Task: inverse folding
């Protein structure tokens, strides 16, 4: 008897089809689930038993039940397998004829038989569509999320009874009709006009927003470092459709989507606390889940009190900052998460925070200052594009809050610069200047003799590494884009070099 029902498992942010098979044999009433299930999958037997008992027209078989999740060497995690397991058991009993292999069933069962939402629906639907599976029976709460994928048929269900009647062709479920996803209004952002002074820091943020560059702010407590970082999302352009779907897939796996408006249109802004573990930042678990750097993909990762983060956490940033991806390896699997984010870090100049601050006396010794600065390694600092001092503002300057240039004007310049980059990289995988590979640098960052000599002499004086040299070129290209210049000029390189000098 055919009892095979198709469902899916999420590995990283990719989906793998899973076939559920059930066998009913004489013996003491007991259910066995095999095929590398985790605790949540193993507990499906209890949810399924109660759901079947509370569903009119079906019965739970009081015999020995064996459920196999194939492939058996693939780790299965989560409660989204409940519905497929229940239908497979009913098929083994002869109550239903299982749907074809091109139909995927997803959903958690409650004890009374209702179908509850599950996570990871978007990557499952988009991934299985590419494998020829085009019909999905899933929780009603996940229908809008699944509807973001074109070329598939979605049948939302609220109960196991509805699913059984649909499969038995007694009463069909209504297919989901995608509606225009209403965008959530932009939340109240910190506007540049509300930040008194700090013209250089605002310029750094504008360059970072235009080209996707990393920034490190250094200044005493209360100088406005956190305020500046939180103003960055207000000048970032909205995500393109491809970016929005990519970020939404990540948040779907993490279970962070709003069922009413699943499509994310605002760029992420993540601000983890400095006590966060390496697994929380990078991602981890027996079945690895996205960490903060992946949740910040195509957005901003703000790390306040940068040197206070544990050294292993900071060193784990090196690969993502360079490659835009992070590999998480475990005993049973290795997954790859996207992590193309703009890092904004802030730090004090010393442990007490008042070194070089004329308003307060620093109480730290020279040894304490040096030890504090060494908490962030040279290789990590080499991956920062823009270093900016954020001094304490005078009281007279603070009184002028609200009179500075608003974020809207900076956002227009950033949008224009991004448009130039989109045209430049229309046949490339790069999206912003910070992502340029070496061959693209040679093509798009051509310097005249005078500008090249300026860069060479400054690189020698500042003892720039090869990586830092190329990062200066990328920043100069962004500055030229903000100015609307086709070629990189000496003033663009000079400004980029100005932000390359480390503070302290």
Result:
């Amino acid at each position: 008897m055919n009892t095979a029902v198709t469902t899916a498992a999420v590995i990283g942010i990719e989906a793998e089809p899973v076939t559920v098979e059930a066998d009913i044999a004489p013996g003491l009433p007991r259910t066995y689930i095999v095929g590398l299930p985790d605790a949540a999958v193993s507990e499906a037997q209890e949810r399924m038993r109660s759901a079947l008992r509370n569903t009119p027209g079906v019965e739970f078989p009081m015999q020995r039940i064996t459920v196999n999740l194939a492939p058996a060497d693939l780790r299965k995690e989560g409660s989204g397998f409940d519905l497929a397991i229940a239908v497979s058991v009913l098929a083994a009993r002869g109550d239903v004829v299982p749907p074809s292999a091109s139909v995927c069933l997803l959903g958690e069962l409650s004890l009374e038989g209702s179908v509850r939402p599950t996570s990871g629906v978007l990557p499952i639907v988009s991934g299985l569509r590419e494998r020829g599976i085009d019909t999905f029976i899933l929780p009603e709460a996940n229908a809008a999320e699944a509807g973001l994928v074109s070329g598939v048929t979605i049948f939302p269900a609220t109960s196991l009874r509805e699913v059984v009647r649909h499969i038995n062709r007694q009463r069909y479920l209504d297919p989901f009709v995608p509606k225009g996803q209403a965008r959530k209004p932009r939340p109240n952002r910190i506007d540049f006009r509300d930040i008194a002074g700090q013209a250089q820091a605002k310029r750094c943020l504008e360059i970072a927003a235009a080209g996707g560059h990393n920034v490190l702010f250094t200044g005493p407590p209360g100088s406005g470092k956190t305020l500046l970082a939180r103003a960055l999302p207000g000048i970032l352009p909205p995500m393109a459709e491809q970016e929005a779907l990519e970020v939404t897939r990540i948040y779907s796996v993490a279970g962070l989507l709003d069922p009413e408006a699943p499509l994310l249109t605002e760029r992420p802004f993540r601000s983890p606390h400095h006590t966060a573990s390496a697994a929380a930042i990078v991602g981890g678990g027996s079945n690895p889940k996205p960490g903060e750097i992946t949740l910040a993909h195509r957005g901003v990762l703000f790390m306040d009190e940068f040197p206070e983060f544990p050294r292993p956490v900071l060193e784990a940033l090196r690969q993502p900052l360079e490659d835009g991806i992070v590999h998480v390896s475990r005993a049973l699997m290795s997954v790859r998460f996207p992590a193309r984010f703009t890092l904004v870090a802030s730090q004090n100049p010393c442990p007490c925070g008042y070194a070089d601050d004329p308003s307060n006396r620093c109480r730290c010794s020279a040894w304490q200052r040096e030890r504090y600065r060494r908490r962030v390694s040279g290789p990590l600092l080499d991956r920062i594009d823009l270093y900016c001092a954020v001094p304490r503002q005078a009281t007279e300057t603070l009184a002028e809050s609200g009179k500075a240039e608003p974020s809207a004007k900076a956002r227009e310049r950033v949008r224009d610069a991004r448009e130039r980059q989109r045209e430049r990289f229309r046949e490339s995988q790069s999206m912003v200047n910070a992502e340029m590979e070496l061959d693209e640098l040679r093509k798009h960052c051509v310097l005249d003799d005078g500008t090249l000599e300026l860069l060479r002499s400054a690189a020698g004086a500042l003892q720039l590494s090869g990586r830092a040299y190329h990062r200066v070129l990328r920043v100069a290209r962004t500055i030229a884009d903000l100015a609307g210049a086709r070629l990189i000029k000496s003033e663009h390189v000079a400004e980029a070099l100005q932000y390359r000098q480390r503070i302290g």
Observations:
- The chain has a mean pLDDT of 92.
